[in-house]
Design a protein that fits this description.
This protein is α/β, with parallel strands linked by helices. It has 23 helices and 18 strands. It has two domains: 244 residues, P-loop containing nucleotide triphosphate hydrolases (Rossmann fold, 3-Layer(aba) Sandwich); 228 residues, no CATH class. Helices cover 40% and strands 15% of the residues. The chain has a five-stranded parallel β-sheet. Strands 16-18-17 form a three-stranded antiparallel β-sheet. Helix 13 packs across helix 15 and helix 14 crosses helix 19.
């Protein structure tokens, strides 16, 4: 198509434009992309971890001209995937000017479109619709009505124009007919009441819409796609069986399959480049951030049916950077390294991202968030340093390994270490006798991560019940476990 697009039906006919349905359009464009040798990353930019699982199934559905549903827990890029379907639409398509249903100039379906072609012939005006304007979506809520989705008879229009209620022009179309020749998405499908879901049956199977008892049916050309959370099937609603049967493909999404993919997603989504301060997040701290989400997805305090969104790590990383940035601004620094205290100061990024079961509610959101952050750090500790306990053949119970005994004894002598998140000094943990030497002996890390590794060691020993830990406005303090246990007696 040339830059100067046809402006009427006659010019469009002479230009050789070919009319095709939206399913054929996205299929043929996908076929062309596959033949050109594009990669999954190029066809679905920004989607990571789905290259061998979800994306092939979506493309199979498109090649099969299927309506489909994405089924998965929160934060699995379902809506983003649906919105990216516009990339498979043509950049522009022609439609008859002044028609609500984006009528195909060669095959109009509305009364107004048919009338325009009959009256003006090749002179009927044509407008060009961009691909972005051919995608619409609706968040399903219990108050959505048939009129919202499909339409209804408009008595005010009938009265003002003095039209009979049998006249097709009295119809007021809903959002789905207005998406004719495009893609329509319903998010959280089970939240639609069953009677509204019934209204979608004809569109999915017979490809038409009938409003109330109006005698005219409209053969719609629309690709219907849906998203749903499995939790909805039991907690808030259900997809009725006839509707589920008419959705040709059901595709299961999932969380990142590996730490590397999870990190790539977080790095892609998080806003960490701040103009005021250059904040560097050390490698060990990045691992702890990702491990927090992994631990949450296995926690007994978190409702696993609800899931733990990848937005948790995005918010957590941004909050860690913000806390470090705030500390740098207070001390007049232009560059700063985030540390473990910044992670524990970011529990607000965790509490809103998890649904708690009864045991978690008893503990409280803040306590569960602190526990998950600590377990994330402990997972890094186990990869970095020796296990805090060893099993001896002559004893049934495990005992602390010898390498940690001098450190535990130092705390047992009454010493404590306070790690402050707003202090410019980040060497508090390194002052524990023998701790720096232990970390250097067992962990292969750069010198600039040594302080962080010592802090991780203290948190790991606390998680192993060898050290106590207390939170205060000043920061986090570590001390003797037995002294804390007997303090209440």
């Amino acid at each position: 198509m040339t830059e100067k697009r046809p402006r009427n039906l006659g010019e469009l006919r002479r230009a050789g434009w070919r009319s095709r349905g939206v399913r054929d359009e996205v299929r043929e464009n996908l076929v062309a992309s596959l033949r050109a040798g594009t990669t999954e990353r190029e066809r679905w930019p920004g989607i990571l971890g789905y290259e061998r699982t979800v994306i092939p199934q979506i493309e199979n559905a498109i090649l099969g001209r299927h309506d489909f549903i994405l089924l998965g827990l929160r934060g699995q890029a379902k809506t983003r995937l649906l919105r990216m379907l516009t990339n498979l639409l043509d950049p522009f398509v022609p439609a008859l000017e002044g028609c609500e249903l984006n009528d195909d100039p060669f095959a109009p379906i509305s009364a107004r479109g048919r009338r325009l072609v009959a009256e003006s012939g090749d002179g009927a005006s044509v407008v060009w619709i961009a691909r972005e304007d051919r995608y619409r979506e609706k968040l399903a809520t219990p108050d959505v009505s048939i009129a919202d989705l499909l339409g209804d008879v408009d008595p005010i229009k009938a009265a003002s124009r003095r039209l009979s209620l049998a006249d097709e022009d009295v119809l007021h179309f809903g959002i789905i007919p207005r998406t004719n020749r495009g893609i329509f998405a319903v998010n959280e499908l089970p939240d639609l009441s069953p009677r509204i879901q019934v209204g979608l049956l004809n569109i999915l199977e017979e490809r038409d819409v009938q409003l109330r008892g109006f005698p005219v049916r409209f053969p719609l050309d629309v690709l219907l796609v849906f998203s749903a959370n499995p939790e909805d099937y039991t907690n808030r609603g259900a997809i009725i069986t006839p509707l589920r049967d008419r959705i040709a493909s059901q595709i299961l999404t999932h969380y990142p399959p590996s730490m590397a993919v999870a990190r790539a997603i977080t790095d892609q989504e998080a806003w960490t480049r701040r103009g005021a301060v250059d904040v560097k997040v050390p490698e060990l701290l990045r691992e702890a951030i990702e491990e927090t989400a992994i631990q949450a997805r296995a926690s007994e305090f978190v409702d696993q049916k609800s899931g733990v969104s990848v937005r948790l790590t995005t918010s957590l990383l941004e909050t860690v950077v913000s806390n470090a940035e705030r500390r740098a601004l207070r001390h007049g620094l232009k560059r700063i390294r985030a540390r473990l205290a910044d992670l524990f100061a970011a529990e607000s990024a965790v509490t809103g991202k998890i649904e708690l079961v009864f045991e978690g509610e008893r503990e409280g959101p803040a306590a569960v968030a602190d526990r998950l952050l600590g377990e994330g750090v402990a997972a890094v500790f186990r990869r970095l340093l020796p296990a805090p306990y060893q099993q001896r053949r002559d004893r049934k119970e495990p005992e602390p390994v010898d390498v940690y005994k001098p450190i535990v004894d130092w705390f047992a002598a009454g010493h404590t270490v306070v790690i402050q998140d707003q202090s410019a000094d980040d060497d508090a943990a390194r002052k524990v006798p023998g701790l720096e030497k232990l970390v250097r002996a067992h962990a292969e890390i750069a010198d600039d991560e040594l302080s962080l590794a010592c802090e991780i060691a203290l948190e790991g020993l606390h998680r192993a019940s060898l050290l106590s830990k207390d939170r205060s406005p000043d920061g986090v303090s570590y001390g003797d476990m037995l002294k804390r246990m007997f303090a209440g007696f």
